[in-house]
Write a structure and sequence with these properties.
five-stranded mixed barrel, four-stranded parallel sheet, binds zinc ion, alpha/beta, 11 helices, OB fold (Dihydrolipoamide Acetyltransferase, E2P)
Length: 427
């Protein structure tokens, strides 16, 4: 920045704040722009009136406020009546703008950039959420925890798409995380499809349209509901995909199954859930999702509305993979089961044993916790009984699977203690 502008800023600081000239001399000012202060009542009134006019004069249903909420820039203007420097006035000013616009326009929809701030959750509706733009390094926790408060756009996906599935998998993945298709930076998928001259018959276009239709149909779940724990998908192996970020830079290799699933609770209807499943591949897929058998067309979405009560029963009998169900036999009987894994819990009084099983689904390890009932006829090998086992012991368990409504997975027929399963340092 030009020295004179920097000097003028420093002069302003000396005059209005002026306490520590040594500090002011060291200040580097990165932006030429002067951040307006919403802690200034006059500027707040102005900002509210401009926004209000967009709704009143142009009848816009929605206003997008760019680079909002404002970065926390300290303000030293004594005439504003707030504490000098940083302070509550920064967040309060942002919030007051939204509150006052909504008071004047109760049906208005407010959208903003980077609006993932807790103090705006009840007054902001849509945000271009950049909290996650590199899935390799980030945990998409904010959009998961606060799903239903805001709608999130802004998942970063960029060409080149070497294969159609590079596009469709990226779109499917972000949709399961609760993002709506679209973004401002990079134009988002619609602009990209136009740039790529994708025809209506292009798989990318078809899957994009299917995604929009799905979100419209299930918006009470996916847009405004609550995201629950992801279902377990059995029967689809991961394949390698290539994603890009920020104008095609930073290529990222992803290993993802063609079938992804998420689970949602309906807005304001406790117990009504949606199992949402996508097939972003060119092949048909046959899978079992949380115990539900599904056949999926290429590049398609499938929603299964369920009641939690019914699901508990299914989950109760589906805590281990059921080959019988996967093969098309919907009637699940008590069948023989087997698991090998570490002991997680021992309840001598109730004669219950908890064991962790790790199944591999393609390259993905899926951990499950299985609870077993020990009966007088249960046999122990290489160990005398439940009381002799310790947490962390590796065991093989042969058991009879239990039907629905049971609090445990099975009744133990035989437990084989495997001392070689423990590391020497563990004793
Ligand atoms: Zn101020």
């Amino acid at each position: 920045m030009p020295a004179d502008l920097l000097e003028s800023q420093q002069k302003m600081l000396r005059e209005n704040w002026g306490k520590d000239t040594g500090l002011i001399d060291k200040i580097k000012i990165f932006f030429k722009y002067e951040g307006m202060c919403l802690g200034d009542g006059k500027y707040l009134d102005y900002a509210v009136s401009v926004t209000d006019r967009i709704f009143k004069d142009y009848h816009a249903p929605m206003v997008y406020i760019d680079t909002f909420p404002n970065a926390a820039i300290p303000c030293y203007n004594k005439s504003h009546g707030h504490a000098l420097g940083y302070g509550r006035h920064i967040a309060k000013g942002n919030r007051d703008l939204c509150v006052q616009v909504l008071e004047k326009n109760p049906t208005a929809i407010l959208a903003c950039e980077s609006g993932s701030a807790e103090y705006l959750l009840d007054v902001m509706h849509v945000t271009y959420h950049k909290g996650l733009f590199h899935v390799g390094y980030a945990i998409p926790l904010f959009s998961t925890v606060y799903q239903g408060f805001l709608e999130y756009a802004g998942w970063w996906m960029w060409p080149p798409y070497e294969k159609d599935e590079d596009f469709t998998s990226n779109l499917a993945f972000s949709t399961h995380l609760g993002y709506m298709p679209g973004s401002s930076v990079g134009g988002g998928p619609i602009a990209q499809l136009l740039q790529l001259k994708a025809t209506p018959e292009d798989p990318k276009t078809k899957f994009f349209n299917a995604t929009v239709d799905m979100r419209t149909k299930y918006r009470d779940y996916v847009a405004s509901g609550e995201r629950l724990r992801d279902p377990v998908v059995e029967g689809a192996s991961p394949r390698e995909l290539h994603w890009s970020f920020k104008g095609g830079k930073y290529p990222l290799k992803m290993s993802l199954a063609p079938v992804l699933a998420s689970r949602w609770e309906k807005n304001n209807e406790k117990g009504k859930e949606l199992i949402l499943v996508s097939n972003d591949s060119a092949q048909k897929q046959a899978v079992v999702v949380d115990g539900h058998k599904m056949d999926l067309e290429p590049y398609s979405w499938h929603g299964l509305e369920v009641k939690r009560e019914d699901e508990r029963k299914i989950t109760g009998k589906m805590t281990v993979p059921l080959p019988a169900a996967a093969k098309g036999n919907d009637e699940v009987k008590a069948t023989e089961g087997y698991v090998f894994g570490p002991v997680l819990g021992i309840d001598i009084e109730k004669k219950l044993l908890t064991v962790e099983s790790v199944d591999s689904e393609g390259n993905t390890a899926v951990k499950k916790t299985l609870k077993f009932q020990i009966m007088p006829e249960s046999k122990f090998e290489a160990e005398e009984g439940l009381g002799k086992l310790s947490i962390g012991d590796m065991v093989e368990v042969y058991y009879q699977k239990q039907g629905e409504g049971q609090e445990f997975t099975g009744i133990v027929e035989k437990i084989i203690y495997k001392p070689e399963g423990r590391k020497p340092e563990e004793g």
